Amino acid sequence: MDNNAWDDMSSEYDNCVEKNPNPVISDYIAEEIKIIANLCKKNIQPDKKYTVIDLGSGTGRVLFSLYKILGNSVTFCGLDASEPMIQLSKIKQSELKIKNISFLNYDVTDSKIDELFDDDSAKIPMCVYNTIGVIPLSKRQQFFETMIKLAGKDGFALVSAFNGDDFAFAAPKIYHPMKSMVKRIDDDSFDEKRLAFKNSLGYYSQWFTKNQLKDLLDSEAEPIPIKVSINNKAHILGHVFADRQLCC
Q1: Measured distance CA(26)–CA(15) in Å, rounded
Q2: Looking at the domain assignment, is residue 190 inside a domain?
Q3: Rg of the chain's alpha carbons, rounded to an integer?
Q4: Distance (Å, whole) CA 246 – CA 217
Q5: Order of strands, edge to edge, in the sheet holding 101-105?
Q6: Are 226 and 35 a contacting pair, CB within 8 Å?
Q7: Which domain holds residue 8?
Q8: What's the pLDDT band for 4 if we cut at 50, 70, 90?
Q9: Three-class SS of residue 52?
């Protein structure tokens, strides 16, 4: 997918994710934020400065949610390749009157991304809601290496991703409520062999197994499951991964 595709989706992104009334989506993102915020609270040291960097920040949902929990204890930065997404983020920021968040239109697959951050704060780079699934295969390994480099020895990197180990069940539950954003769900959209959602309009999102993501992060830390209740039964629809063992 190219950046123009995300530009076209920007108007529907909030409605399909942040404001989606379907409990599968709303409960998923609430649990995702809860886990990420808890990891930050338990692992941020009071005597250090931190910068949370959302790689593929969309319209700012994750950073605004984390701000409500972490407040001014950290600095936030959102990076996204879609200019319309960034503009929507800045409009929200202005309405909320939040000063310690910055948004920048930037290609998050750029290997020189660390040059944007020349301060002495510890970095917490994160990539959430399966954004890693749209990172091109040719840039995927470099992207993870860049995240780990940003985190350094004093920070940590976080990734949340949909559950590729249960793709056949989880993918339809997640994408059907987001149809107005992805525009089309075809008969062959759920590719179980490749663990990918795709459609004839060019939307493509890769899913990963737990072991695949642990390998990409070069991490032995067990991921934290994102559980959602469907028909009164808890299902693991995703996980939050860290590049190292953290207090959780």
Answers
A1: 11
A2: no
A3: 17
A4: 14
A5: 101-105, 75-80, 50-55, 122-127, 158-162, 233-242, 224-230
A6: yes
A7: 3-170+208-242
A8: low
A9: strand
With respect to residue 191, please indicate whether it lies within any of the assigned structural domains.
Answer: no
Q: Which of 71-80, 111-120, 178-187 has the lowest mean pLDDT?
A: 111-120
| b/e sequence 181-211, b meaning 16+ C-beta within 10 Å | bbbebeeebbeeeebbbbbeeebbbbbbbbe
Q: Which residue has the tokens 């539950």?
A: 173
Residue 231 DSSP symbol: T
CA 52 – CA 75 distance, rounded (Å): 6
How buried is residue 231: exposed, middle or buried, by Cβ count under 10 Å (0-12/13-18/19+)? Answer: exposed
Domain membership flag for residue 187: no
Q: At which residue do the structure tokens 């072991």 appear?
A: 211
Distance separating alpha carbons of residues 168 and 165, to the nearest angstrom: 9
The residue among 142, 108, 114, 126 whose CA lies nearest residue 37 is 126
Amino acid at 17: V
Quick: pLDDT tens for 30-83.
999 999 999 999 999 989 999 999 999 999 999 999 999 999 989 999 999 999
φ, ψ for residue 120, nearest 5 deg: -100, 15
- The CATH number of the domain holding residue 160 is 3.40.50.150
Number of domains in the chain: 1
Classify residue 235: in a domain, yes or no.
Answer: yes
Q: Which two tokens stand for residue 104?
A: 């920048």
Q: At what angle do helices 61-70 and 83-96 cross, to 10 degrees?
A: 30
